[in-house]
């Protein structure tokens, strides 16, 4: 699985303890990246995979599209 420089970095994951057991997570920077796990460790591994998959999808779609950068001043 190849991830470009765009995929590297830190991502914030909101973790919820599920009533049925285990944990679920959602990435704040990539809302499509969600997963679950029986333990926090498993959730972390699953979230890493989910984030990589979302980034691969974005990269694949954007390589075919026209692009421009918008700078929003502070």
Question: Topology, pairings included?
Answer:
Blueprint: E1 13-17, E2 23-27, E3 34-37, H1 40-62
Antiparallel strand pairs: 1-2, 2-3
Query: Pairing-aware structural class of the strands and helices?
Result: alpha+beta
* Spatial gap, N to C terminus: 36 Å
Largest sheet: 3 strands, antiparallel
**Averaging pLDDT over every residue, what do you get?**
88
Q: Which key terms come to mind for this protein?
A:
Double Stranded RNA Binding Domain, alpha+beta, three-stranded antiparallel beta sheet, 74 residues, single chain, elongated
Q: What do these coordinates show?
A:
- The protein has 74 residues and is α+β, with helices and mostly antiparallel strands.
- It has a single domain (5-59), classed as 2-Layer Sandwich (Double Stranded RNA Binding Domain), CATH 3.30.160.250.
- It has 1 helix and 3 strands; from the N terminus they run βββα.
- A 3-stranded antiparallel beta sheet has the order 1-2-3, with helices on one face.
- A hairpin with a 5-residue loop joins β1 and β2.
- The longest helix has 23 residues, at 40-62.
- It is elongated and about 45 Å long.
- The chain starts with 12 loop residues before the first strand and ends in a 12-residue tail after the last helix.
In short:
This protein is an alpha+beta fold and 74 residues long. Helix content is 31%, strand content 19%.
């Amino acid at each position: 699985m190849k991830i470009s420089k765009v995929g590297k970095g830190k991502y914030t994951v909101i973790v919820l303890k599920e009533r049925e057991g285990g944990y679920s997570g959602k990435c704040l920077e990539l809302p499509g990246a969600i997963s679950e796990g029986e333990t926090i460790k498993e959730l972390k591994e699953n979230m890493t995979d989910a984030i990589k998959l979302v980034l691969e999808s974005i990269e694949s779609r954007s390589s075919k599209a026209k692009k421009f950068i918008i700078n929003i001043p502070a």
